[in-house]
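Sharing a chain and its predicted structure for anyone who wants a worked example. Both blocks are below, sequence first, tokens second.
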Amino acid sequence: MTMHETPTVRDAVPLGPLERTALLTAALRAAETSRPDRLYTDPYAAGLAGAAGWALLAEIAAVTGRRTDESDVPSTPDFNAIRTRFLDDHLRRLTREAGIRQIVMAPAGLDTRAWRLRWPAGTRWFEIDQPALLARKRRRMAESRPSADLRTVPADLTGLDWETRLQESGYDPARPSVWVLEGLLYYLPPDEVRRLLTRIAACSAPGSRIAADLVNTAALTLPEMEPLLSVFEGWGAPWMSGCDVPERLFDQCGYMVKAVQPGEPGADFGRWPDPVPPRSARGARRVFFVHGSLRVPR
């Protein structure tokens, strides 16, 4: 399949909010893969994105083109590339150095790390997401073999029974795991964010890890963010929450974490285009990459 080939009728899905954001991310990863200075290679992204994904990316590109005035809109492609590479490296370290053999992508979207990266023997990979998205990916990836023991879990992370479905799929709550919440938390209300983090901690064993990205509260209201946020709101996927002190949020939910901003050491890769505002600066938009461990009970 070429990068701009139109998807078949069978693979078409109604473009609800979740489908739009997943297709957009796939298109962003396909675009990154085509760059000579790419931070990673995702050979499956273009086929998963299809024509719909490229159209959504065009919408985003129209409002996030780099400008020279003071109201420069954040660069979505650069952010997505750095986030993907950051999490790639983080997961490889945890499996190879910490020996973790359970990875949970929540939600999975159209992510292909289970296929495009090599994982140690015995790694069990869980993908939680809505049934329609998992079915789309299953069809598209049918001829490709994952490098981990892949288990799909059709469930709503805001629903009542995903823990049961996850364990029925082979997840062992007595073994350490790493949970990846990529591109999720800003789409949830604050109380739902706390509820989800607490539920994840409750079904995780000592030694478990977590990784996530989130924005600060200013990113939800600053005028320069309005063009980007308006697109997501028009898709039915408004950004609903931000956090100024992610370490405190995760601590309250059972984790000890560190938060790093794109452009800081370990989260730059030579691609972040903007100055990194110090944490003491007020009124600046921020993105945080959060990673840490389940807190040991006192």
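Comments welcome. Confidence is low (pLDDT under 50) at residues 1-13.
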